[in-house]
Amino acid sequence: MEETAAIDSAPVPCVSYKRSQKTSDFAGSADYGVCTSKVMKCFGCKLHSLVSLSGVVLGFLLTPASHYDNQPVVELLDSVDHHLKQLLGDGAYNDQALQEYLEHACSLRLLAPVKANQPAKRSPAAQKALNRLRLICETVNANCKSSFTSPSTMLRALGDSSRALPSRSPLTVLA
Fold first, then answer.
1. CA-CA distances (angstroms) from residue 123 to 99, 106, 120, 126, 156?
2. E strands along the chain, which residues?
């Protein structure tokens, strides 16, 4: 059982801007959100994943794209059985309150890069090594995200399997 894992999120666009969000099959499950690392705004979801350093997905969660990355961390950790002691995240997880909560409630140390206006917590070489380890989560997210290219697959993942889409749906899906 691994003691260290990485956490990250990736945007999963559902429909293009040519279609109104109110008429979308994803209305209520998806929302407009911004992905600063990809410099994009989309209507869709975010895939939050917890990945071991060996590349095994420990858990994932789909949220509306408008949720900030660190909001579903506790819910994601509670949804999986783990014995983690360290969690590697990107700058979006640099939240003092979240770090303290995880330390006290879960005995879990959240390691995230510091912001530009904060004092350094570790050496640049150590931070670079942590960033390299964290890349496994981004790789897994990219592979998982490609699984959500079908509208029917996305609806099933969102828990709405009762609404079947026609095989030639006019829904425009972005990969």
1. 19, 26, 7, 5, 44
2. 4-15, 31-35, 40-52, 57-64, 86-88, 109-111
108/86 Cα distance (integer angstroms) = 6
Which among 53, 119, 114 has a CA at the least distance from the CA of 86? 53
- As given in the structure block, the two tokens for residue 150 are 């079908």
Residue with tokens 């979006």: 92
66, 32 contact by CB (below 8 A): yes
> Quick check: 76 and 106 in contact, CB under 8 A?
no
Q: Per residue of the chain (175 residues), what is the pLDDT tens digit?
A: 689 999 998 887 776 655 555 555 555 556 666 555 555 676 777 888 899 998 888 988 888 887 788 888 999 999 888 889 999 988 888 888 999 999 999 899 999 888 778 888 888 888 888 888 888 888 887 777 666 555 555 556 555 444 443 333 333 333 3
> 86-125 burial by CB neighbour count: b if 16+ within 10 A, else e?
bbbbbebbbbeebbeebeeebebebbbbeeeeeeeeeeee
Q: Is the dihedral of CA 19, 20, 25, 27 positive or negative?
A: positive
Question: CA-CA distance, 105 to 15, in Å (whole number)?
Answer: 39
Kindly give, in sequence order, each residue whose CB lies less than 8 Å from that of residue 10, ignoring residues fewer than 6 positions away.
35, 46, 47, 49, 138, 141, 142, 144, 145
